[in-house]
From TrEMBL:
Protein name: ABC transporter
Sequence ranges assigned to domain ABC transmembrane type-1 in this UniProt record: 39-328
Gene3D superfamilies in alphabetical order: ABC transporter type 1, transmembrane domain, P-loop containing nucleotide triphosphate hydrolases
Biased composition (Polar residues): 420-434
Length: 434
């Protein structure tokens, strides 16, 4: 079996570098299987949000229609039943649209996860073995599980939540400005104050999130190391050494989380108080009573402000919680983009099943960085039935040469030739590490 051969002048062979992921590759690769479903999720979410506001508008209009009955006046019964019918239909449409949006989003998420995991496993099969040697098993687990699950939160939940959180306040404010613009301005006050305070709360958030990710990763590594070392602890009794790193990382993580919580607790509490339903209700009542007392608005005009104004801050807080899902999904996209951009081992132009068990190196040179050669013009034959020993000083390239046999180390496609096909696997020789 000829596994490596120099195909040109004796210039060092360089390792292929990973491609830089682009925005186009992310867009085409990740969401192509569910792009139509994403548009459907957005449309159904908008429909559900708009029709969800209609019953509240119907309550206001029903109160206006029934108000003359208080003084014994005439009531338009037909209009009353029309308002009730519109409210009932809108309510059922809202429930149906929300259910359909959730169904479509979860079906799309299932297709996306199936597509991504299939692509990940397929790409893992084509990567050089050295990629696995340089990484822990947790890297593969993160790609297949954590990163894909982060996109699950985006597709199955965050899109619907974000669209609803934007549409409901927008529709409510439009109606309020139509019926009573002064009260609409009063309803905007909690939103404006929250919009001013939130950047203060998130000041330095990018750096804090980066430190949080690093602390979490370090704690995970220390936990795995501690669990794997339990057998050694039982055998040799080195309890203090084995769990020292785990204990230190746990303390460091706890200190970081506690410090971050203390820094943001006050501002977060202020925002929660300002956006709480009780505070908003008191503020709107005070504004409404002032407008009525000033003769600017009728008492019935306060009702839409109370009903619609109370529904403005809730979606805003939900939008804030969805920001974490969007952040995790963005990180997962970047991680998967970098993974899919890794250059796989190039397949042979004319694959052939090895007929013997020999290995031939023909004038092989190799360099990791393209400048400093590790191997120089090696020509050797490892005949079947013989044992080949690689002898040399530490750092002389013994392991590098051995890893070139199963393509553990990647060579650039222009200077690498492998005559071994990628399938069927059952008919190929194996490399067993010891």
């Amino acid at each position: 079996m000829r596994v490596a051969q120099r195909l040109d002048d004796p210039v060092s062979v360089t390792r292929a570098e990973p491609k830089t992921p682009t925005e186009a590759s992310v867009e085409q690769g990740f969401f192509a299987p569910v792009r139509g479903s994403l548009a459907g999720i957005i449309g159904l979410s908008v429909l559900g949000a708009v029709t969800g506001v209609v019953p509240f508008i119907a309550i206001v209009e029903l109160a206006r229609t029934l108000l003359p009955a208080v003084s014994g006046g005439w009531i338009d019964v037909g209009r009353v039943w029309l308002i009730v019918a519109v409210a009932v239909v809108a309510l059922f449409v809202s429930f149906g649209a929300a259910f359909a949006s959730g169904l479509v989003s979860h079906l799309a998420d299932a297709r996306l996860q199936h597509s991504l995991r299939g692509r990940i496993v397929g790409h893992l099969r084509r990567l050089p073995l050295g990629w696995f040697d340089r990484r822990a098993s947790g890297t593969v687990r993160k790609l297949v599980e954590n990163d894909v699950n982060a996109l699950h939160q985006l597709v199955a939940h965050a899109i619907h939540d974000v669209v609803t959180a934007v549409t409901v306040p927008a529709v409510s404010l439009v109606y309020l400005f139509v019926v009573q613009w002064q009260l609409a301005l009063a309803a905007l006050v909690p939103l404006v104050v929250t919009a001013i305070l939130y950047p203060v709360l998130m000041r330095g958030g990018a750096e804090k999130y980066r430190q949080y990710d690093e602390s979490t990763a370090a704690l995970s590594e220390a936990t795995v190391e501690f669990v794997h070392g339990i057998a050694v602890v039982k055998r040799f009794g080195q309890v203090g050494r084995s769990h020292r790193r785990y204990r230190d990382q746990t303390k460091q993580y706890s200190r970081f989380v506690a410090e971050w919580t203390r820094e943001t607790a006050t501002m977060f509490t202020v925002i929660e108080i300002i956006t709480s339903p009780v505070v908003v209700l008191v503020w709107l009542l005070a504004a409404g009573l002032w407008l009525v007392g000033a003769g600017v608005a009728a008492p019935i005009d306060v009702l839409p402000g109370l009903l619609m104004g109370l529904g403005l801050t809730g979606p805003l807080l939900k939008l804030g919680s969805s920001a974490q899902f969007l952040r995790d999904a963005t990180k997962a996209q970047a991680s998967l983009s970098g993974f899919f951009a890794l250059s796989p081992v190039p397949p042979p132009d004319e694959p052939s099943i090895p007929q013997g068990r020999g290995v031939v190196f023909d004038n092989l040179s190799f360099s990791y960085d393209g400048e400093h050669r590790v191997l120089h013009g090696i020509t050797a034959t490892c005949a079947p039935g013989t044992v080949t020993a690689l002898v040399g000083a530490s750092g002389s390239g013994k392991s590098t040469l051995a890893k070139l046999v199963p393509a553990s180390t990647t060579l650039s496609p222009a200077r690498w030739r492998s005559e071994v096909p990628t399938s069927p696997r059952s008919r190929q020789p194996s490399c067993i590490g010891r």
